[in-house]
């Protein structure tokens, strides 16, 4: 049965509101694998659903289903018409309905993870869609990226520096990258992660547990990392710059 | 100016956050299949869309708006069934229902209205658009114009992501269609109080075919 067939009228809010966590970050930094890691680590504790946003395909949803980290029906894809940042910020309706449907169809869910389509350093979630967000960078993208700042790096609820097991192969000093990121974030949390290092997975899981606690106690206040900066889109003709004002 | 002009612009603007930007109105598939290759093809595509799907959508939006304004909500359900009967492609039915649902979901936040609680659970996009127009105190004629505009703006904006084309040329094609669109919208508005079964059924079989192909594609930029 599809979500559409089971959904009530568009005005009725789901009975059970989950903690909604967004996962943003540039292409290829490991957003999907971070979600797979989270599901693997936490699915015995929490009932989790996942919404993926892809640019061309539903490949991320397929990857997660193939990983077998959740029942396949609790992983759904939203198609974003080649503009993934629009779907998490300017026009969140498609994702909002997907989250609400998921909460309705599998009630009660504890956590819904929303994966942004891979974009650039400036794409962040609107608080009208999610309650908190991770921004994922990786060491292979270069040790200097964290210093570049921007709304996601500077103000996401958690900055993840991923694939630290690769650092030695790409000449990145993880401690320095974490220090740069911490400085760029005024001390807000930074987590060095590798899906091959259990301790880092435990730290990530603990961050989610704490967030869940703060969310239910009312201590957690959703914050907006900030608007899109004008940014560049590469295409066959070279590319173009646009804003979302 | 007539009452509600600003509300019509609000509802018809592609920037309304109701998820319409993810759809190309069949253009992506038409380009992939080699049926649209240049700006002249695009203009033919838009003309075809305006005179078939667009004209039907406009008539249903006008009629749905009229039914809501006249508090004939049972007619809204009948209109939705009638529209469904004029949409043979399962893929297009799904798209229309999704867009209708997204529009009404967005409207609950943008302009809360008691009509939302009383409408049928699922509505096709043109019927939902007519209902949304009524919530904004617009007239059936506005609903027809708005939905027709949206029917063409989707592909006209999508084309620059799908084909090597000058965006000015895409808008020139739209500008050249303005007299036709005014005529279609005017005709559609005459169905405001019509028996739902008598609404037009201009078929576009090729649109149905390309929509089914598109839905089966592994890699696509647009959802439809």
Please explain how this structure is put together.
With 245 residues, chain A is α/β, with parallel strands linked by helices. Chain A has 8 helices and 9 strands. Chain A has one domain: Rossmann fold. Chain A has helices spanning 3-6, 31-42, 59-67, 84-90, 93-105, 151-155, 174-184, 198-217; strands spanning 19-24, 48-54, 75-79, 111-115, 132-138, 158-162, 190-192, 231-233, 240-242. In chain A, helix 7 (174-184) links the parallel strand 6 (158-162) and strand 7 (190-192). In chain A, helix 2 runs parallel beside helix 3 (59-67) and helix 2 (31-42) packs across helix 8. The N and C termini of chain A lie far apart (39 Å). Chain B has one domain: Urease accessory protein UreF (Orthogonal Bundle). Chain B is built from 10 helices and no strands. Chain B has helices spanning 5-12, 27-32, 39-69, 73-85, 90-110, 115-118, 125-135, 140-162, 167-189, 205-216. In chain B, helix 3 (39-69) packs parallel to helix 9, helix 5 (90-110) packs parallel to helix 7 and helix 8 runs antiparallel to helix 9 (167-189). The model of chain B has no long low-confidence stretch (mean pLDDT 95). The A-B interface holds A 4, 7-11, 55-57, 79-83, 86-87, 90-94, 96-97, 236-237 and B 15, 17-19, 21-24, 94, 97-98, 101-102, 104-106, 108, 116-117, 119, 121-122, 158, 161, 164, 218-223.
């Amino acid at each position: 049965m599809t979500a559409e067939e089971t959904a009530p009228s568009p005005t009725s809010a789901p009975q059970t509101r989950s903690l909604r966590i967004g996962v943003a970050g540039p292409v290829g930094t490991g957003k999907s694998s971070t979600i797979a890691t989270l599901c693997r680590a936490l699915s015995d504790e929490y009932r989790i659903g996942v919404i993926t946003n892809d640019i061309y395909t539903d490949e991320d949803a397929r990857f997660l289903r193939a990983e077998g980290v959740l029942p396949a029906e609790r992983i759904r894809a939203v198609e974003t018409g080649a503009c993934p940042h629009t779907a998490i910020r300017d026009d969140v309706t498609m994702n909002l309905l997907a989250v609400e449907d998921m909460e309705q169809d599998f009630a009660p869910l504890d956590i819904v993870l929303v994966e942004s389509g891979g974009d650039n350093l400036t794409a962040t979630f609107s608080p009208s869609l999610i309650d908190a967000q991770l921004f994922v960078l990786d060491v292979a993208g270069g040790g200097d990226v964290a210093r570049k700042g921007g709304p996601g790096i500077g103000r996401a609820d958690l900055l993840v520096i991923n694939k630290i097991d690769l650092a030695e192969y790409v000449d990145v000093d993880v401690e320095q990258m974490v220090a740069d990121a911490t400085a760029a974030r005024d001390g807000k949390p930074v987590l060095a992660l590798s899906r091959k290092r259990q301790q880092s997975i435990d730290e990530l899981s603990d961050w989610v547990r704490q967030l869940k606690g703060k969310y239910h106690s009312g201590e957690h206040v959703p914050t907006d990392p900030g608007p899109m900066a004008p940014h560049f889109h590469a295409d066959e003709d070279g590319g173009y710059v646009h804003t979302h004002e | 100016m007539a009452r509600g002009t600003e509300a019509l612009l609000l509802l018809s603007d592609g920037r309304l956050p109701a998820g319409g930007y993810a759809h190309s109105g069949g253009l992506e598939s038409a380009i992939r299949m080699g049926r649209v290759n240049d700006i002249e093809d695009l203009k033919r595509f838009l003309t075809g869309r305006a005179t078939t799907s667009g004209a039907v959508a406009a008539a249903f939006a006008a009629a749905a708006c009229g039914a809501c304004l006249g508090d004939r909500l049972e007619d809204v359900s009948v209109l939705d069934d009638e529209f469904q009967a004029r949409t043979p492609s399962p893929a297009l039915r799904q798209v229309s229902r999704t867009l209708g649902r997204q529009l009404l979901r967005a409207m609950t936040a943008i302009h809360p209205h008691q009509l939302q609680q009383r409408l049928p659970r699922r509505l096709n996009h043109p019927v939902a658009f007519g209902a949304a127009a009524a919530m904004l105190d617009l007239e059936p004629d506005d609903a027809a114009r708005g939905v027709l505009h949206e029917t063409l703006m989707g592909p006209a904006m999508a084309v620059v992501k799908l084909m090597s084309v000058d965006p000015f040329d895409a808008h020139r094609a739209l500008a050249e269609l303005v007299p036709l669109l005014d005529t279609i919208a005017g005709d559609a508005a005459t169905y405001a109080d019509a028996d739902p079964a008598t609404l037009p059924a201009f078929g576009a079989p090729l649109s149905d075919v390309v929509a089914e192909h598109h839905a089966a594609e592994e890699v696509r930029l647009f959802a439809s």
